[in-house]
Specification:
2 domains; six-stranded mixed β-sheet; six-stranded antiparallel β-sheet; 11 helices; 12 strands; globular
Length: about 350
């Protein structure tokens, strides 16, 4: 008898593509008739509209226009009834949502377009879907010219909780494996730091710190699409101690009639500091001189590093805290910086 891990083994070349692995895993789980019923019940509760549970779920099937939804449900008569765009960390695309909704509209009967995301990306997903499909109000939505097509954002962890109602031993084992895989691939498993020494050896858990920055910066993004994360060069040439640059994401805040950017990322320590998480104001942003003066006139002046080209502010990562507490601690420090740097002009 095949298991979930055995099924996923055929996709081993995708080991670095977590979204594809989770998509294939969910498709496999939904082969179980009770799982399909549990999923249909969950979607009904979230969208207010029933989906047929007597369907075949398939992954990564190309549409007429070349679009390829992560998952889709096919009824016995061949009609596509549900399309799912599943995300972990990748960005959203207007073209994807438009393509999938247009494909659903080719059928006379209605359907569902579902966006499946981790909990910390709900706000971002709502904004992306509403913008791409010109939707108003709160979810669930219906397309303006096709009221029989429902659009809804659903959560990975809630879907997995719904599937936990299936009690067969084989399915329970598969689901447990999938949940473990999902927690790792989604960055949900941010492990507590056990000691200061573990913080100093942060490169051994570099991915965890990147996940922290990802969570924090997604939360801080107010409007529009979340910027990508990428590696920037440091102020000086890389050395043996600073070989990897600064892995960051930019966010912005309004200041008068401008919107200066700042970035948060991970990098090797500055001398005298013991955190790999740093907030940076670049000298080429609007109102940089004003922001620098404000920071140097505040209590933050005691910890900031002014290289002349940039102003760096350390963000302390707490020890013996779980992932959510670490995210909250970092957000609190960033908000303190924002309160100083972006104080309204008088």
């Amino acid at each position: 008898m095949r298991t979930l891990i055995g099924h996923l083994a055929q996709f081993s070349v995708l080991s670095k593509q977590g979204e594809l692995l989770c998509t294939q895993g969910l498709s496999y789980l939904l082969q179980d008739v009770d799982a399909r019923r549990a999923f249909a019940s969950h979607v009904l509760g979230k969208s207010g509209s029933a989906i047929v549970d007597a369907v075949t779920w398939r992954a990564e099937v190309t549409q007429q226009d070349g679009g390829r939804p992560d998952l889709e449900a096919v009824a016995a008569d061949g009609r596509i009834t549900v399309k799912i765009e599943a995300k972990l960390g990748a960005g959203f695309s207007d073209d994807q949502f438009q393509s999938y909704s247009e494909d659903l509209q080719r059928h006379r009967e209605g359907g569902h377009l579902l966006v499946l995301v981790p909990r910390h990306r709900v706000k971002e997903a709502d904004q992306a879907v509403r913008g791409a499909l010109h939707l108003d109000g709160a979810a669930p939505w219906r397309l303006a010219d096709r009221q029989d097509i429902v659009v809804c954002v659903i959560l990975w962890d809630e879907v997995l909780s719904a599937l936990a109602a299936v009690t067969s031993e084989r399915f329970t084992g598969d689901l447990r494996q999938f949940q473990s895989m999902y927690r790792v691939l989604s960055g949900y498993d941010i492990e507590p730091l056990a000691s200061h020494e573990e913080l100093l050896a942060w490169r051994e858990k570099e991915g965890m710190f990147v996940s922290l920055v990802d969570r924090v910066t997604r939360t801080l993004t107010l409007h529009g699409k979340v910027m990508p994360m990428y590696v920037m060069p440091l102020d000086q040439e890389p050395t043996e101690l600073e070989p990897k640059g600064y892995r960051v994401r930019y966010v912005s805040r309004p200041l008068g009639d401008k919107n200066p950017w700042f970035c948060i990322g991970v990098r090797d320590f500055f001398a005298g500091h013991d955190t790999p998480v740093w907030l940076r104001f670049d000298s080429n942003i609007p109102s940089f001189s004003l922001i620098r003066d404000r920071l140097n006139s505040s209590p933050l002046a005691q910890v900031l590093v002014d290289t002349g080209k940039h102003v760096w502010i350390p963000l302390s990562v707490p020890i013996h805290r779980d992932g959510e507490q670490m995210v909250e601690a970092l957000l609190s420090q960033v908000e303190d910086v924002i309160a100083v740097a972006f104080r309204p002009l008088t």
